[in-house]
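> example.struct
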């Protein structure tokens, strides 16, 4: 049964059983050779977290997939934290998290963009415990509170809140939600624009291309670093309504008017048909064709830290 939430254009992008079977059984024209889910080399930077635990500089550290450590104004936040070795005991991690548990600083805020298991991982959340503020989309607050998380902020699209000294806006994305068999689109999905002292970053969550990127750029102000997904896009007939490919991501970056592109959502979990190492290669090709400056593009290694500044 579909829930009450839908995208800006009124659509509800759900992966119905018939479409999933068509994809999985190969009854379509975009079939690709099977490629490994693990053992794929991905750039990895050893990071003991020592400098990050001091939290003296504004920075972004890619932990893997959509998981980032964001540090602004001395506060440390995790976005879509997934530290588990497997998703639902099925999808194995290709590369270890870029920060081990012991390397993490004290976490003040946890941001959850939506309830899909590669973005909202219960074992990770339980280990983080009840001390951080958990910022979640509309519809997820009650379940977090029942799970023992004391400090929960539930947000609607375009809602703004001051949280631990950070100015937070929950913004739309083009996606959908489901955790079980009967809760399709019963909770919202989106991205976050997070600002402190004039420095503003954006994490899109999962999203397809949509006209909302221009709206986000117009309504939220200059975005200095935009974390955008470049993987989990094949086959396009199935994925284009829910995930961007590198070409869509570059288009989104331009629509946002952002200063820095930070690539994410590739290399960690094999969720779709493209080779795990393909997305950054395609991104570089699209970027070059678009004639964009190389210094605006950042494809981090897992564990790598990007220093932020105005």
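> example.seq
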């Amino acid at each position: 049964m579909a829930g009450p939430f839908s995208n800006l254009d009124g659509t509800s992008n759900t992966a119905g059983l018939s479409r999933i079977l068509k994809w999985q059984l190969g009854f379509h024209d975009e079939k690709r050779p099977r490629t490994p889910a693990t053992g794929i080399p991905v750039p990895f930077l050893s990071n003991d977290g020592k400098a990050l635990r001091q939290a003296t500089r504004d920075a972004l550290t890619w932990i893997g997939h959509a998981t980032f450590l964001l540090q602004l104004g001395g506060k440390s936040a995790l976005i879509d934290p997934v530290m588990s070795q497997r998703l639902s005991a099925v999808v194995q991690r290709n590369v270890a998290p870029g920060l081990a548990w012991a390397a993490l600083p004290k976490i003040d805020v946890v941001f959850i963009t939506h309830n899909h298991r590669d973005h909202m991982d219960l074992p990770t959340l339980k280990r983080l415990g009840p001390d951080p503020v958990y910022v979640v989309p509309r519809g997820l607050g009650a379940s977090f509170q029942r799970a023992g998380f004391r400090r929960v902020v539930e947000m609607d699209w375009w809602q703004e809140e001051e949280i631990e000294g950070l100015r937070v806006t929950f913004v739309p994305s083009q996606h959908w939600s489901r955790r079980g068999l009967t809760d399709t689109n019963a909770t919202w999905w989106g991205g976050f624009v997070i600002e402190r002292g004039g420095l503003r970053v954006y994490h899109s969550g999962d999203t397809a291309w949509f006209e909302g990127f221009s709206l986000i750029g117009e309504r939220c102000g200059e975005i200095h670093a935009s974390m955008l997904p470049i993987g989990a896009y094949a086959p396009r007939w199935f994925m284009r309504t829910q995930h961007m490919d590198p070409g869509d991501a570059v288009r989104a970056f331009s629509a946002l008017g952002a200063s820095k592109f930070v690539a994410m959502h590739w290399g960690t979990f094999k969720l779709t048909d493209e080779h795990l190492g393909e997305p950054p290669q395609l991104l570089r090709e699209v970027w070059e064709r678009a004639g964009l400056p190389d210094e605006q593009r950042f494809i981090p290694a897992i564990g790598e830290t990007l220093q932020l500044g105005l």
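> remarks
The chain has eight helices and 16 strands.
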